[in-house]
Amino acid sequence: MKKSVLAGVAALAVLVGIGGFAVAQQDQVKAMRSDPVDELNRLGPDFKWAEKEGRMQRNYRQQPPLIPHSIAQYQIDIRTNQCLSCHDWTKAGERGAPTLSMTHYLDREGNELDHIAGTRYFCNQCHVPQADVPALVDNQFEPSAPIQTR
């Protein structure tokens, strides 16, 4: 009797597994990437850099500024950060680039540093290039109202 119960449970498990697989195959999930994950992601035909001069308006307070240029060939890793070749406080003036916020030179305890803090080293964890592209998903986001001053 135990064998028949085990055989029934095994058969039920197989049927549920096959049924689940069949249901999952009906609605093919489409990735937002056009390329396989292990390959470089090419820009689609709808992609174009924002043609607006200067900085784009921020949608909420404390939003990190968008990057107004391509960073496709920039090296940002533990040894090199090419953003700093223009935006570090020691070079920004001569290069005509915006300097990093002072908050990027504070350690976790709030102490001022002469170099960028390790927690702020990887720029593209907060900053992204500005581009005029269609939304990947529908969105009802509305920017916050301007702050009223008295």
TrEMBL record:
Its main location: periplasm. Heme c 2 binds at H104, C123, C126, H127. It is found in: Periplasm. InterPro entries: Multihaem_cyt_sf (IPR036280), NapB (IPR005591). The keyword Iron applies. Heme c 1 binds at H69, C83, C86, H87. Residues 1-24 form the signal peptide. Keywords: Electron transport, Heme, Iron, Metal-binding, Periplasm, Signal, Transport. One of its GO terms (biological process) is anaerobic respiration. One of its GO terms (cellular component) is periplasmic space. Binds 2 heme C groups per subunit. Pfam families: NapB (PF03892). It comes from the Bacteria. The keyword NADP does not apply. One of its GO terms (molecular function) is metal ion binding. Component of the periplasmic nitrate reductase NapAB complex composed of NapA and NapB. Electron transfer subunit of the periplasmic nitrate reductase complex NapAB. Receives electrons from the membrane-anchored tetraheme c-type NapC protein and transfers these to NapA subunit, thus allowing electron flow between membrane and periplasm. Essential for periplasmic nitrate reduction with nitrate as the terminal electron acceptor. Belongs to the NapB family. This is Periplasmic nitrate reductase, electron transfer subunit. It comes from Roseibium album. The lineage of its organism: Bacteria, Pseudomonadati, Pseudomonadota, Alphaproteobacteria, Hyphomicrobiales. The gene is napB.
